[in-house]
Amino acid sequence: MADYREMWKELGMDVETHDQLCEVLPMAFTDVYLSQKNRPENMGYFDFVVSEIHGVRPAELVKAQKENGTKVFGTFCVYVPDEVIFAAGGIATGLCGGSQFWVPGGEKVLPTNTCPLIKASVGARLDGTCPFFKIADMYVGETTCDGKKKAWEILGEEVPMHIMDLPQMKRRKDYKAWSEEIVEFKEKVEEFTGNKVTEENLAASIKMINDKRRALERLYSARKNKNIPISGKDSLLISQIAFYDDPTRFTEMTNKICDELDKRVEEGVSVFESGTKRILLAGTPLAIPNWKIHNIVETSGGAVVCEEMCTGTRYFERPVDETQTTLEGQIDALAERYMGINCACFTPNNARIDDIIRLCKEYDVDGVIDVNLKFCNLYDTEGFLVERELKKAGIPVLGIETDYTDSDVQQLRTRVGAFIEMLDR
Length: 425
Ligand code: SF4
Ligand code: SF4
Prior knowledge:
Elements: H1 5-10, H2 15-34, H3 43-51, H4 56-68, E1 72-75, H5 82-87, E2 91-94, H6 103-107, H7 116-126, H8 131-135, E3 138-142, H9 146-155, E4 161-164, H10 172-193, H11 199-222, H12 232-241, H13 247-267, E5 277-283, H14 292-298, E6 302-308, H15 313-316, H16 327-339, H17 350-362, E7 367-373, H18 377-392, E8 397-402, H19 409-422
Parallel strand pairs: 1-2, 1-3, 3-4, 5-6, 5-7, 7-8
Helix pairs in contact: 3-12, 7-9, 10-16, 11-13, 17-18
This protein binds iron/sulfur cluster (2 copies).
One iron/sulfur cluster binds at residues 115, 117-118, 144-145, 147-148, 284, 373, 376, 378-379.
């Protein structure tokens, strides 16, 4: 990585502790990623972004803040409509932490039995070891799970925090409530940025984010082929980068790799041996740099062909209706699209099970691994219904619970290996 120490110091980061992260991350990346064979050439861009993850994009954000007075909004959930932020001339960036490195910092203030995603996110801020957490002028939280709701109170002491009240059911009145919540969010963003959201700039940002969704849809479609032109690990990396990168550039680079994948499909190129079992991962999000389960599956005789996760299909499926011409209509269209995401924080949430079964067919899946981040009560509890319904549908399923440590890797490898072997019979 180039030298960004001056920037990190200016941001008030703990540069010495951060150096330790800078040492381990490239090693993990080399082991998991660069060891793969026959990777698409256009992964080069995404490898570069990850190798400079705390440098190149943060430097762009700082530049936009200093030179143009741009406001940066840090978000933690796929329900937050980035479109509103970009329409007001702001920049949205994902803040979910996916490394064990940040967990002990979170445990200083949170109960140990909090999910690692929340602990890592809080730790990254409190320890001063992630530039994105320092750069964001405002955090946008949501009322999804209990752990997050309480974490906002701690993070809100550090940074201005706006919390969106996400309904937990999907009745007509809940859609209406979410529309109203988006209107309130729009007003907050307008006040904070000093810029008005208009029909024109909102239409442009809806199109920009839809283009990103369409590019990801293309990437995922390539994985539906019998010959799989890209590994699950590489696809996951692209999905994770989608939360941080400049959306227009990201779309361009993702479409570029999709052109290469289309060519590979035409030529029958696969990165897996024929007969490799096709696995769908369902469950809790895998924030960067959490590559653990993909790595285990893909070094145990399986290929991850789809993720029914927030770092997966929940992020990009179903674009926002672009035909609305009034602010009111556009906001209702946003509400409609975002309320269509099926997170376990909703009850009932049968549509998520329907989604998983549909995706199994679309991606011609041999088996599902239902991944739960330790201490996520919502997905853990919903796992019972998910696994029961998948079995009823004749789809083999393995439920696993894990965290960000390496302590269970061997045990998981044994279980995942046995599951994949069983799919052969
Ligand atoms: S799992 Fe639910 S709460 Fe977590 S990011 Fe996804 S939608 Fe948000
Ligand atoms: S994984 Fe579960 S507990 Fe963790 S932030 Fe998401 S919904 Fe909350």
